[in-house]
Amino acid sequence: MTASNEKPRLLTGDTPTGRLHLGHYAGSIENRLAMQDDYDCYFLIANVHALTTRSEEVAGIREDTIEIVRDWMACGIDPNRSALFLQSEVPAIAELTWYFAMILGYGRLMKNPTVKDEIRVKNLGDNYSFGFLMYPVGQIADILAFRPDVVPVGEDQVPHIEMTREIARRFDQLYCGVSGQTDDADYVKEGGVFPIPAAKTGRVARLTGIDGVNKMSKSLGNAILLSDTPKEVQKKCNKIFTGRGTMEDPPVMENNTVIEYLRSFHTDQSRVDELVDAYSKSELGDGHLKKEAAEAINTLLDPIRERREKITDADVVDALREGTKRANAVAEKTLWMAKQAMKYDFFERGLELR
Q: What is the pTM of this model?
């Protein structure tokens, strides 16, 4: 099924750095599921961006690509309603990256807090490739190649979306003659190629990992994966740091990760209120709350795990092939529109996937 052109368009995606976890689910996947009927949806696997920190792990990137798409489909993202596609197979993205790089200043790029945070969290120091700095420019191209109205992201990605909005305005003003006084909603109506996309964050903007300190991240080893077994979920919940030095100490109520998980994933919030109240009075210990949190998470993950087991590698590749065909049709149209605006429209081209 091809989504109606009358629907507003949505673009988002994931970099294949490992299987998806609960932070991805609450931060973005839930929004994708809720919006895929009402939006023309494009979901990107950013396998080129994965090379910024894994250039010597291409086999691992390929494996993670398959597993993330399997996670998407297991969660309920439907390839018949949404286009699932590979960044590496949409050449228009790479060409647009060059054009956008020419109108994005280095100083502005390095002020992006997400870039600085990635350098810090991954302990890169000054040891990162030029491609690492091209990554946020490429992410702008990932988004604008599809001229979306909305981009569901986690809270940490909002600075990227703001930079994308700046470049969309800059391009439309520079090459399409759109006035800088134009309201964001009117850029296309005034002759711009690119709409000014809005970020949409999930109900849980930042899910803490089981270390009780950092955002949930597979690279930090503090994540509960969507594909974890029930025993693995319980084992990880048992490791959650709650801030208490010893069990004789009073419970720490503020920034308590177990309580955060109960609030985020338990289906009965009145039950959570009871648990938290009893815990605050030391009538219940950490272990009881951890057990209840694991049960709530497993209730969420049980149907996802069941669907996941039935999805083959061939199913994933077929979904990517069909989705990438759809993605190329849109991205090539966008590129042609951009080149027309830039007076680079010497001749059109076509693409064919084999």
A: 0.88
